[in-house]
Write a structure and sequence with these properties.
Elements lengths: L3 H12 L5 H41 L4 E5 L7 H9 L4 E16 L2 E10 L1 H4 L5 H4 E4 L10 E5 H7 L6 E6 L11 E11 L4 H4 L2 E5 H7 L7 E6 L5 H11 L4 E5 H4 L1 H39 L1 H9 L4 H32 L1 H12 L20 H18 L1 H8 L3 H5 L3
Parallel strand pairs: 3-8, 5-7
Antiparallel strand pairs: 1-9, 1-10, 2-3, 2-6, 2-9, 4-7, 5-8, 6-7
Length: 413
Amino acid sequence: MILPLELFVALRYVRSREAGFFVSFITWVSLLGVALGVAALITILSVMNGFEGELRGRLLSLSAHATLVAADGGVVDGQALADRARRAPGVVGAAAYAEQQALLVHGAEMSSATLRGIDPAREGSVTMIDRSLISGSLSALLPGANQIVLGRALAFQLRVSPGDELTVMVPAAGGDGELAPRIRAFTVAGIFEVGLQDHDATLALAHLDDVGALMSQRGATGVRLRFVDVFQAPAAAKALAASLGPGLESRDWTLENASYFRAIRIEKPMMTLILLLVVAVAAFNIVAMLVMVVRAKRTDIAILRTLGLAPRGVVGIFLAQGVLIGWSGALLGIAGGLSLAANVGAVVPFLEQTFGFRVFDADVYYVTEIPSRIESGDVIMVATVALLLTLTATFYPALRAARTEPADVLRYE
């Protein structure tokens, strides 16, 4: 425990200029190093949280929180199953769907796509397709009208716009077992843009009945669900599948987009570890600074020991000095990191305008602004690790100071 006397002496040592310019310089470098490392870590983690939220929002804009499908891969009574699922607690939307891989052809252009049959009246309760439409409307997707809505990148590849006609081919086997694709002409009724390649370049939407007419088995392949809490969707969907009877299995957004979120889960800890090395280097500077202070203050230590100060008191003095420097840097870094993370949306445009560069060019990237989301758990983790590192760095110099022998030091004084 650090007593008031030890804290007072430590404050005098921190403010003293007698130790020399180099010691003072190392002291300030240590403090600023800790502050810079902590601020950078909080800012980077907040930006990564922001990108994760942005990615999750774009993925779920046209993806359901979960789906219920037949375990044998067959068709289900989509409307009846959706009505039953809609009454379950926690479910805010349910809609039948059918999905099939298809080849889209327009003139000399062709592209593979995921053809998804939807119920336009219910789709808005499951996804945010209405917000993503840049032309056309889902109301044009009437049964038997053979209307289709394409992602913007897919429409660009096929060189089509609303009103153009294209051919949809779905693989199927004939009666003799030979490949006999089903072919139907569709009219482009609209174009959507989510800002994610997986949707914009591969997804085509049509009415459920029109897609069912192209499939070898007519009917819905499953039901898409939306829950109140997206993070509870995996467990809730599994429980709902079990409650609706045998023969159903659930799939959720964490499995369908596992590669994206696995990459984030790997990158975030690695980035944290790399930036914590900055704080560790600053902590080693505190060790070097305190060792030099101990050598410079050997006479003072010896005098204090002869006046009755116990070795524990000497340890307390240098622990307090190191903690004052390290924790001041950590607190300064926390304040700076929180301020920067909260205003990164304004800081980046200012830097772009000042220095004439673009971080995310709108012609290249879907995301043109740097998102940021501060999470209290990350801030607490960074603060705790920084405080522990700087506290640990003070033990060796403090113990070395406590081993100073007054007789050896004062012999020739």
